[in-house]
Amino acid sequence: MNSSKQSKWYVLGTVSLAVFMAMLDITIVNVALPDIQKSFTVSFTSLQWVLNAYTLVYAVMLLPVSKLGDRLGRKWVFLGGLALFIIGSLADGLATSDTWLNLARGFQGIGGAAMMSLSLSIVTASFPAKQRGLALGIWSSAVGLAVSGGPLIGGILVDTWGWRSIFWINVPIGLFAIIMGLIFITDRARQETAALDWLGLLLSALMIFGTVLGLIQKEMHPSYAWTNSHLIIWFIIALISLGGFILVERHVKTPLVDLTIFKSRTFIGANIAAFTLGAGLYGGFTYLSILMQNYMGYSAFETGLKLLLISVFTLVLGPITGLLSDRIGNRWLISLALFIGMAGILVINALLKTPFKWAYLYPGFILLGISNALVNPPISSAAMGAVDDRHIGMASGIINVFRQVGISFGVVILGISVTNGYNDKLAHGLSQLTTLPALIKAPLTTMLHKAGPFAGQQIFTDHRVAAYRELPVFNEIKHLVYQAFNAGMHQGDLMIAIFLGIGGVVALLLIKDPRSAQK
Question: Which residue windows are transmembrane per the record (predicted)?
Fold first, then answer.
């Protein structure tokens, strides 16, 4: 793919805009859920599929659309995905039921996957090696800004125009991106004409589908043991599909994924770093948002404004980071960034206590913001630089799969950590309340455990708690719940730090820079 000196920057702007929309739709919906729930009068469990339908289809389609881009041309599959995304967004905004909305969100996820996966390979192919770091830095700025800025943007749209506006805003922006893409993105001849690896395609889809759906089931039903049949069946499907996928790809003439790219230690290291980044930093955003909204009392808009402290570093440092990776190497920059993120969450862990205050969060947020800004460009650069040009589409799909599955994994594991810490502290605290009669303590304990750590202030405004408000120990019970959530957050913070620390060590051990070693 060759672009003129001027048009390649328009190409970068176009794909960055598309990526921003695709990633934004993973996070922006969170703040709109209460309004959507009122519109359709459904349970919160049912409503979670507004998030999960998009995430599930998005993850499953990342590899197939990368392969289609290699076969049909990246420009046309990218623009086709953008068109599907626009149609899905329009259907989202017109939804009259939660089922309609969930189906439209899944359809939208197909387009989001095409935009996200192919954008990275389009940028990589459009820029020469000496400018690639800067270009990937700008591309990564769009990713980081969308992930951390979603709650703020969503809050503004919902408060001003209602929840349907978070989907309809994609229509004019998407149409503009399509026009820009038609004008400026040029495509090379199709790379492959051999028969498509349909069996590999099916097995890869089953593998990712089983993994992500199993994690979603665990997220939606925290009480399920990992051996519960509702979970284990999906993980078994994923494991069998993985084994079958490896066998097929080793013997088919034109594989969906050329497994030889995993001979590169650098490529493996970059993908593990992407997974731990998703699990730790991006998965952690969910629980930091819950802390600020449900326990500190911030509105969706105020929460987004606080999280802007993280995303603003991406705007400032993102492009510079690309240049830094060219100078000091991807290996050191990825490790440094992940260790800075680990330090940031450990600072929050050290400061956090009840009553919760913003002063306990912002020092750590600054470090998390620096980490987020520094880490994405070198991860992308390392992965794409570790494979031959003919494999960059495939590599783009794989690293995005690792990042997205990492987010799903992190949300579940961190949720388990927070819940365990909360339940242990709550059980111990309630057992110490000797002034509370047993007839009252038993149902109250059951209710608080059932509500879970993420109900926050809402549990104390619930009608079921009305009978307890006049008790002399009511404020003590409320304080205990806050202390329990604090204990849960401490466990979650340590898990985030472990994820980021593992990523930093793996990057240091596996990733090699081109100047120091061969791929």
Answer: 9-33, 45-64, 76-95, 107-127, 134-154, 166-186, 198-216, 231-248, 268-292, 304-325, 332-352, 358-376, 397-418, 494-511
